Amino acid sequence: MQRYSSGNGQIINDQMKLFISILLFITLTAFVNSCSKSNAKFKEGTIELKLSDCENGSISGDNLKLCFEAVVSDSRCPANAMCIWQGAATASFSFTKNGNTHRFNLSTITMKPNYAKDTIIAGYKIEFTNLSPYPGTVADPIPDSQRKAEVKITKE
Q: 58, 83, 90, 156: which could join 107 in a potential S-S bond, CB 3.0 to 4.6 Å?
């Protein structure tokens, strides 16, 4: 359907106007979505964090944030070796509940007094279940960009 504009006699194509409107809408929507912050929300259960990353969540109305700060040590027996002891990986974390931050270390094994696999902070049990990649499965030294911590969080 075509019509004539009232001033200069040019033909205005209604379909072209519709196409441009849709294109403008899609472009603006994509722009707004790209500007919005990715706010991954965790729930009770297992969370995987990359080194130096944090994840926000909410459990039972509490505003929570869990961060994987650093790998403190990794003495786990490499996959391609025979060892007397399995070794342990220890990592540094921070946990924030309603604005109160707690820093702590957890290990992949529990062996007192130096290694604790879990802790209870502000009514939440936090358990360090895995550090990947496992030694001996990738080139040594393991780049920080490949480090991931698997942590389980439950409300006590």
A: 90
